[in-house]
Amino acid sequence: MIGLERPDLYVLARFLDILYENGEPMKKTNLQMRTGLNYARFSEYFEWLNSHGFLQRKDEDGAELYSLSPQGVDAYHRLVAWIRETMKGMRI
Amino acid sequence: MTSEQNGGAPEKMLADMVKDADEYYGRLKGQHANQTRVHVAVVGSVVWFAVFAALGLGVYFTVPKEMVVEYLLGAFLGAIVTGAAAGLVMYAVRRRRGFRFAELGALLDKMKGDKASSEDGLRLMDLMHQAALTMRKQRLDAAFEYGVAAFILVSVVGLNAGFGALAGVATYLYFRFEALREFEKEDQRYEASKRDIVFSL
């Protein structure tokens, strides 16, 4: 696998944001461009997400398209809910 | 946990987040301004009193009796200027610390204008956490003030500056230790929760 022992939460959030907001399946190249990561870094995160079942692949006209799987959508919901809960618990 | 149990769709949760963070930012600014006023007043008064007491005693014991009033007036004015300068320095220090919240304000403005994303939410959460820690750090100033108060109290009541100094240092170290411990505990808890969420996704 996957050279990621401890993925950066910000980068994971960026992937999930893009895929969730886009809704439609998208090409890997488009995803890479929108994340703003270099190819090596992008591949590590892409593989991490894939190995956790957050991505689903669809082949269309010979092109590989990716979108969030139901687990991916659930992970996005949980991430947002966690941020909300953590913020609620913050005191000055 | 479903999204419904978590408080609704992510879009709504993100919008609520921005609203909550905006209120938090408002409270933060208000609290910072209040603390600044109190600190400036306390530091200015303490410095004024200390300078006036030192100069006044010097005048009383060294200046001929017929010139004491003039010299005391000079000491009084000198103490006011020094106290005001100390207050200004305190104000400048706290204002500089307050600028750390400016990034939070800028991000909030951006998020209010655009559609909020979870990455922005994370950034907002980190900035709120940093702001809360900055406010906690300001308790270190309070530890110093408690130390000075203990020094004055014990020195006056015990008529012994040595015991006063001892009490002042002990009080300062205790409150400093408590402030730092709470600060570190909260930071560690926060970092641990960030680690946990990555692996629980």
Assembly state of the chains shown: heterodimer
Distance between the termini of chain B: 12 Å
Q: Structural class given helices, strands, pairing of chain B?
A: mainly alpha
Name the strands of the widest sheet of chain A in spatial order: 1-3-2
Domain unit count of chain A: 1
The CATH architecture classification of chain A is Orthogonal Bundle
Shape call of chain A: globular
Largest interface: A-B, 30 and 38 residues
Low-confidence stretches of chain A: none
Determine the N-to-C terminus distance of chain A. Answer: 42 Å
H and E order of chain A = HEHHEEH
Describe the 3D structure.
The complex is a heterodimer of chains A (92) and B (201). By secondary structure, chain A is α+β, with helices and mostly antiparallel strands. Chain A has helices at residues 9-22, 28-35, 39-51, 70-88; strands at 26-27, 55-60, 63-68. Helices cover 59% and strands 15% of the residues of chain A. Chain A has a three-stranded antiparallel sheet with strand order 1-3-2. In chain A, strand 2 (55-60) and strand 3 form a beta hairpin. The radius of gyration of chain A is 14 Å and the shape is globular. With 201 residues, chain B is an all-alpha fold. Chain B has two domains: 1-137, no CATH class; 139-201. The longest helix of chain B has 53 residues, at 10-62. Chain B is elongated. Mean pLDDT of chain B is 86; it is low at 1-7. The A-B interface holds A 6-7, 9-10, 12-14, 16-17, 20-21, 52, 54, 75-88, 90-92 and B 1-3, 6-7, 10, 13-14, 16-17, 20-21, 24, 27-28, 31, 115, 117-119, 121-125, 128-129, 131-132, 135, 190, 193-195, 197-198, 200-201.
